[in-house]
């Protein structure tokens, strides 16, 4: 490779190359924190504002025997799991739980509706796939999991 090729940037705007290098390590934590931040208000409503009553009306919660138990469980997963995702604590386990929850919401509760205006499943499906990716990767460098001696 000659010197001209070695000095060429692969970017259309080469002046952004240094900025990209600085910001790149923050991309994954941003995804993890965003999912957690989206989950927290949903769980907060279920736990502290009576939203569990509406959630318990869903027939899916019959698997818990008592629908209110299932609604509280999901509220706890969303609220405390969201906080744990933000902190990067037990990230794989929480993300796997969120993945399962979102797949149930997508394919049992909302299926076959697609589209925001039709109470569709696309948002829950997207969140589930993001949670699956997080479960594969773990907490990453900027997480409490990285500070622990072992992780899941």
Gist?
This protein is mostly helical and 152 residues long. The chain has helices at 3-7, 17-23, 27-48, 51-56, 67-87, 91-110, 122-137, 144-147.
Which descriptors apply to this entry?
152 residues; mainly alpha; 8 helices
- How many strand elements? 0
Largest sheet properties:
none
**Which band does the percent of strand residues land in?**
under 5%
Low-confidence stretches: none
End-to-end Cα distance, whole Å, is: 44 Å
What is the helix tally?
Answer: 8
Overall number of structural domains: 1
How would you sum up this structure, described in words?
The chain is mainly alpha-helical. Helix content is 66%, strand content 0%. Helix 3 runs antiparallel to helix 5 and helix 5 crosses helix 6. The longest helix has 22 residues. The protein is globular, with a radius of gyration of 20 Å. 26% of the residues are buried. The mean pLDDT is 90.
Q: What topology does this entry show?
A:
Layout: H1 3-7, H2 17-23, H3 27-48, H4 51-56, H5 67-87, H6 91-110, H7 122-137, H8 144-147
